[in-house]
Structure formats: structure tokens, C-alpha cells
Amino acid sequence: MLYVVIVFLCLSILLYLLLGGADFGAGIVELITPVKLREKMRGITYQTIGPIWEANHMWLIITIVILFVGFPSIYTMLSVHLHIPLLLMLLGIIGRGTAFIFRHYDAVKDDMQRIYNIIFTYSSFITPLFLGVIAGAMVGGKIDTEAVTFFEGYIRPWFNYFSFSVGLFTVAICGFLAAVYLTGEAEEKEIKGVFTRQAKLLNVATVIAGGIVFIAAEIEGIQLMRELVTNPVTLVILLLATASLVLLWHFLGQNKKVHTRLIAGFQVSMILFALGFHYFPDFIIVQGGNNISLYSAAALGKPIETLGWALLIGGVFIIPSLVYLIYSFQRERPEST
């Protein structure tokens, strides 16, 4: 059952980035959208992510539950040593969700709309930024379980070049995914063209941000680039992700909605798979070499078995329901008579 739990953990993280990350990316795309087109862009955003934006957080909740029940030592280490970026990320989620609802359903259209827009867009940037910062801190090797000062124990693990470079990389990925998804939803030629250009721009930004991650890793003494390139499996995965750029730009130019979404999801999945393959089974890289792996941190006995069955049974209901939810809101609504 341990492998079942690990598969669901990895799947939840991937789906949260692909679906929830695209939600955050909508705010990032809005930040770089021309002012005169933002109102139309918001209408498309409401139609696209409005029905399912809250459901996407289900994957984050599943991830937290799996760590809490199945890997308590990992959950404890994250919530203790990385509690500051975790808090900032959660504040971003709350601020973004609140602003999203109020600016859409507020009956009075006044100056508060401007405040809602600011909170929505900037919290959409902050949330994936600190999600990436947390991910970078988990593999950055600066978590010190023997720390004796506040800075060494709770600031240094995440307040560094590498963690923030991963944070910016995550922001770029989220914006890129959102632009690709929104391109397929836009019907007006002008705004579709804007989204297409933004998707290409953010795709380039993602590549550049990925390069910055490798540079920051070298600065911090992390041999990430060398280890990924010398491993034949991760090298092939990264080459596949890179080669798919050609197809992505080709289909973006032809407005192929399904093709571009599949390739964008493939690119992001390959990046995560390469990193996951490189670090597995380690989940947290600890200073001093006492890494926390999914095998050593797993709860013994009944907790893992019970959790595994709960995930299998729950998956039978949750995944088809989510697919149908997305499908039902993508269907064209009949004209009212």
C-alpha cells in the first residue's frame, strides 16, 4: 500500500500544479494584459475557472492529508522549518479566493473593485512564488535540524537564491499554463491573439527562469544541472520537454486548443517527472546528509494501509466527478428562449 500512497501523493502534487497552478496563472496573465482588454479577460476567466477554482484546491488538501497521516515526520519538518513561506502561501490563497469572489459577485460596483483586482492579481503572483520557494527549500539542503538560532532554523532554509529562483520558475509555469488554457477559451480574434502572444512570452520566461534555477543552484553549491544531464533517464525526459516546444509554438499559431493544452501539460509533467526521478525516494534534503525519504518517513502498520484503501476508494468517486465537472462547464449552453 505504500506505493499506492506515494503514487497518489505524486499525482496530487502534479494535478495541483497543472490545475490549481493554472488558476493562479490567470491572475499573472491579467497583470500583463493591456488595461483596455482586462475587463474582457476577466469575463473569460470567470467562465473558465469560476466553476472549478475551488475544486482545484482539493489536490492540495489531499497532499496535506497524505503527508499528515502517512508521513508525519515530513509533515512536521515542513510545518516547523518552513512555516513562514507556508503561511505566506496560505495568505495568498485566502486573499486571492476572497478577492475573486468579491469582485465577481459584489452587487455594488465602486472603487472597491480596484482593490479586489489588486489583491487578486498580486496574491496570484505571491501564492505560486512561495509554493516554489517551499519546493526549493525542500531540496536545497539547507534545512538544519540541529539549528540553534531562529535564522538558521526558520529563515536560512528558504531565504536563498535557489529557493526564490524555483519560486519564480513556478510563477512562470503557472502563467504559461493559464495563458495556454485561456487562449482556447477566447472567441474574439483580438483577445485570442493577446493570449497567444502571452503564452509564447511566458513560455520563453519559463525557459529563462529554468536557466536561472540552474545558475542559482551552482551559486548555492547544488550540482543540479550536472546531475540531471549525466543521468540518461532525466536527460531524455528534459530533451523530450524541450523538443515539444516546437510543436507547442506550431499549434499555438494554428489555434489548436486541445493540442496546445496537452503539450503544455506534457512539458510541465516532464519537468516535474525529471526532478522527481532525480530525487526519489528522498522528499526533503537535509543539511548534513540525513535526508528524509518517503520510505524511511512512512508511518508503520495500519495508517499506510488504511490511507491507501481510502485513496483508492476515494479516487473512484473523486476523479470521475472532477472530469465530469470540467466537461459539463465546457459544454455550450443552449440559447434561452
UniProtKB/TrEMBL annotation:
For this entry, list what GO says about its biological process: aerobic electron transport chain
Positions the record marks as coiled coil are none
Signal sequence residues: none
Its Gene Ontology molecular function terms? electron transfer activity; oxidoreductase activity, acting on diphenols and related substances as donors, oxygen as acceptor
Topology of the protein relative to the lipid bilayer? Multi-pass membrane protein
Put simply, this protein is called: Cytochrome d ubiquinol oxidase subunit II
What UniProt keywords are attached to this protein's entry?
Cell membrane, Membrane, Transmembrane, Transmembrane helix
Sequence similarity: Belongs to the cytochrome ubiquinol oxidase subunit 2 family.
Q: Which InterPro entries match?
A: Cyt-d_oxidase_su2
Record field: transmembrane:
6-32, 58-78, 84-103, 115-138, 158-181, 201-219, 231-252, 264-286, 306-327
Highest rank taxon of the organism:
Bacteria
The answer, when asked if Membrane is one of the entry's keywords, is yes
Which GO cellular component term is one of those annotated?
Answer: cytochrome complex
Q: Which organism is it from?
A: Marivirga aurantiaca
Q: Where in the cell is it found?
A: Cell membrane
A Pfam family that this protein carries is Cyt_bd_oxida_II
